[in-house]
Amino acid sequence: MASKMVLGIALPNTKNIIVPSLPYLQ
Question: Out of the domains of life, which is the source (predicted)?
């Protein structure tokens, strides 16, 4: 269950980091 909690926290965080950076990568 701990791994699920980590994924539940990590996945949204990575989206919050990657999505705003997409325009800069282009």
Answer: Eukaryota
